[in-house]
Amino acid sequence: MSKRFQECNWLEKTWRYRWYAAVPFQWMWYQYVVQFKVGIDEMVDGEYMHTDKYEVYKDRGLWNLIIGDNQIKMKWYYTHEEVMSKFKTSDKDE
Question: Which of 21, 31, 38, 87 has its CA 20 to 30 A from that of 66?
């Protein structure tokens, strides 16, 4: 099993950063050639049902989705404990 990004040494992190090199090309592909569509589900009788509706992402929103997709490939994620500790420290700052 591969380690997550935050637990890697500097050499492996550098290798995983290669996924960022594709971001501008993916953005141009989805911005100008094909559309990046995300299906919209609606709540019907207490259950989510798939509809024929979709949202098309462009510009900055598209860029952010592509960055997130590539971070998944890099195995860059946070554990539940890390997220909860971040919320606890932000509450103390206020």
Answer: 87
